[in-house]
């Protein structure tokens, strides 16, 4: 039987805001299989980003557990968690999160440095990926010298640098115009369809959510509906 690549088991995430406790997630269980493309939708404050962050091990759950390739993150120390996360998951953020003083090439090389890859191999791999996302002529440009769409392509290249199993994207087109946004979504589609990358994506737009195999609807920290979208994963 196929095992999920990511799994949440009765996960709670509670934020302590002084005298007030906020239940961002309340008993969420979810299985994500290789090749899935899942959109996470819901109103503001429903727990979308918290679910994404917990599933990708950026946050530890308050209760319950998240399993990455069958291993619970609650049993890992911070170093183990960072290592597993670094090899398994690539991150794409709405605000790009590029380092301003670094070139596109250096930004994409960075996660490979954390994985102990040699300088020569880092440069080769980063150059190849930037060419793949259409930025072969922009490798020496810094983020301030790139358009929003180009910066998001650098962010995608950085996410792909370590050849992760899973891509997590938090509103990846939120800061882009419609044309650039469509190009980025097509690139994410291709990563899923042609390369078999598993994708978890937060969006507030129905038209974007419909690109996925499944749409999870969140409200008050709970999955209230799991909608199958007709697309089939490989």
UniProtKB/TrEMBL annotation:
Pfam families, alphabetically?
ABC_tran
Q: Which cellular components does GO assign to this protein?
A: membrane protein complex; plasma membrane
Do you know which PROSITE patterns this protein is assigned to? ABC_TRANSPORTER_1, ABC_TRANSPORTER_2
Record key words, sorted: ATP-binding, Nucleotide-binding, Transport
- Entries under InterPro entries matching the protein: AAA+_ATPase, ABC_transporter-like_ATP-bd, ABC_transporter-like_CS, ABC_transpr_LolD-like, MacB-like_ATP-bd, P-loop_NTPase
Q: Which GO terms describe its molecular function?
A: ATP binding; ATP hydrolysis activity; transmembrane transporter activity
Database matches in SUPFAM superfamilies: P-loop containing nucleoside triphosphate hydrolases (SSF52540)
* Domain called ABC transporter: residue spans: 6-234
Note the SMART domains from the entry: AAA (SM00382)
Q: Which domain of life is it from?
A: Archaea
Q: Where is the signal peptide?
A: none
Its recorded name reads ABC transporter domain-containing protein
Annotated source species: Candidatus Iainarchaeum sp
